[in-house]
Amino acid sequence: MEASSDRGQVFRLGQPWQGAPPFLFANWHVDHYPAGNEDMTPATGLDGRPLGSDFGHPSGWNMYHGQSVPGFPAHPHRGFETITILSGGYVDHADSTGAAARFGPGDVQWLTAGRGISHSEMFPLLETDADNPFELFQIWLNLPAASKMVEPEFRMLWNEDIPVVRVAGPGGGEARVKVIAGRYLTEQGDAVDPLAPPVGSWAADPASDVAVWLLELDPHARVELPAQSADQAQRVLYVYGDGSHATVAGRGVEAGFGFAQAGPGTTLIETGASGAKLLLLQGVPIDEPVAQHGPFVMNTRDELIEAYDEYQRTRFGGWPWGRDDVVHPRTEGRFARHTDGRLERPGATAR
């Protein structure tokens, strides 16, 4: 099922999902974690698992690089940004600047790695009397050469604060568009602005026309997405989730496939008897060479070598934690503590 038309191309999703510049790729993780124990690790035990590299496990959940708690212990990044969208479960963040966070369902963490940061992303299993379902998107967004060495910074976009556009369809179904990045112009002409990204982000430049929207359509729903503000902006939609099926710009697209739009313009999305979930990524390509190896994304091979050398020598500022797989206390709620000591919690004034 791969076909082109004057409206765009339907393509099969790989693993990870291929990104159109300025996006490098998107990873969609779904894990059906069991109940946890007092240490927030799987209560069913870990016997027989290839700990340290547990991916694609037939049980329906993975430890990834975790040795006790699932997740990704300390690892480096330089030269790009990660956007982590959490739909289920919890993530504990800690990094080489001394910052930390715990975020949960509906929250988004936006991290501009810039000149370099080490961080851990662990998935504590907080529920002891029930399963711990987990769903996460991690999107890699490139940075231009002028911003690859900016100071690292993360921002928390709390679920309660992220705007959602609701559109009632003629068939009675509702479409919901979660506006994570990029101004959204409703069909009535109203502007819905997202929360601000980090200051060094490519999305902070209005000329980038970066948009990240998470869409959920009921059966018999309809929404017409606004056109790109820049003619050069590339728009891709990914359909995911069991049973998802949508008609995108006149083309049928089911779960496991994407739609790359050809040129600027509005995008009409409709559903029939089935609902649909979609992720939209959009932006103006960064017209520069890309040199990528592992967790580093630069412009030249020499810059990659320099990044590896600096990380080996400094760990991008050291690691001020007693362990590589940092997990916060079970009783800790959702929070973010930034490098300057500023503490924020959802629904509360930062202090």
Describe this structure in words.
The protein is mainly beta and 351 residues long. The protein folds into two domains: 131 residues, Jelly Rolls (Sandwich), CATH 2.60.120.10; 159 residues, Jelly Rolls (Sandwich). The chain is 4% helix and 41% strand. It contains one helix and 28 strands. The strands form six sheets. It has an eight-stranded antiparallel beta sheet with strand order 1-2-22-19-24-17-14-13, with no helix packed on it. A six-stranded antiparallel beta sheet has the order 3-4-11-6-9-12, with no helix packed on it. A hairpin with a 2-residue loop joins strand 20 and strand 21. The N and C termini lie far apart (52 Å). This is Pirin.
Rg from Cα = 20 Å
Helix/strand-derived category reads mainly beta
- For CATH, the homologous superfamily of the largest domain is named as Jelly Rolls
Shape: globular
**Helical coverage, percent range:** under 10%
Based on the structure given, which CATH architecture of the largest domain is correct? Answer: Sandwich
Percentage of residues in strands: 35-45%
Q: Flag low-confidence runs.
A: none
Query: Could you spell the SSE succession in H and E letters?
Result: EEEEEEEEEEEEEEEEEEEEEEEEEEHEE
Q: Could you describe the largest sheet, including whether it forms a barrel?
A: 8 strands, antiparallel
Number of domains: 2
- CATH classification, class level of the largest domain: Mainly Beta
Note the gap between the termini. Answer: 52 Å
Q: Which fold name fills CATH's third level, the topology of the largest domain? A: Jelly Rolls
In the sheet with the most strands, the strands line up as 1-2-22-19-24-17-14-13
Mean pLDDT: 96
Number of H/I helices:
1
Total beta strand runs = 28
